[in-house]
Amino acid sequence: MPKKLILTIVALFLVSFCLNGDCSGKGIFESTTSWVVPEDYRYKDRTRAFNDVASCATLSTTDTENQVCCYIKVKFENENNDEKYTHKGCYEVDVHYMTDNDAYDIDNLIDFIEASFDANNTNYKLVSKSISLDCSSKYLQLAGLAVLILLL
């Protein structure tokens, strides 16, 4: 009996360790502020978030009270070989972008990331084609869970 208890505790510890992680650990850029594609991934697709939004929903951010971990998908063209690539990962976004506020608009953030991506990758001839950022599904999942609990 004690062996099963110890095995259960170890399994629960491993599962909780795998579910908790750092949002920047699944990032697709060299740093959270540079928007530069790492050298090894300028000529191939890269997926750091294999389950799309679900991969980022449980990750923690550096500022847990003022940031959320969002799913980001960047499609860009490498003009050196005229090929298009897609990178998928997680990105830390300030909570202010989740509110209905004119000063902080998620579309403005996406435009800023796109402009920064193009500016910081001109030496490598990388041009962004589309950038999508998904933060709201995390809150939709919580709302769905709340409704399910109320129905029980």
Structure description:
Helix content is 36%, strand content 23%. It is an alpha+beta fold and 152 residues long. The chain has one domain. Strands 1-3-2-4 form a four-stranded mixed beta sheet.
Which key features would you list for this structure?
152 residues, alpha+beta, 4-stranded mixed beta sheet, globular
Topology:
Blueprint: H1 2-19, E1 46-47, H2 53-57, E2 67-78, E3 83-94, H3 106-120, E4 126-134, H4 136-151
Parallel strand pairs: 1-3
Antiparallel strand pairs: 2-3, 2-4
Strand order of the largest sheet: 1-3-2-4
Measured by DSSP, the beta-strand proportion falls in 15-25%
Rg is 19 Å
Strand count, sense and barrel status of the largest sheet are: 4 strands, mixed
What's the number of extended β-strand segments?
4
Which runs of at least 5 residues are low in confidence (pLDDT < 50)?
13-17
Helix content: 25-40%
Looking at the structure, what is the overall shape? globular
State mean pLDDT (0 to 100 scale): 82
**Oligomer designation:** single chain
Find the structural class using helix and strand composition. alpha+beta
End-to-end separation in angstroms reads 34 Å
How many discrete structural domains? 1
Q: Give the H and E element order.
A: HEHEEHEH
Helical segment count: 4
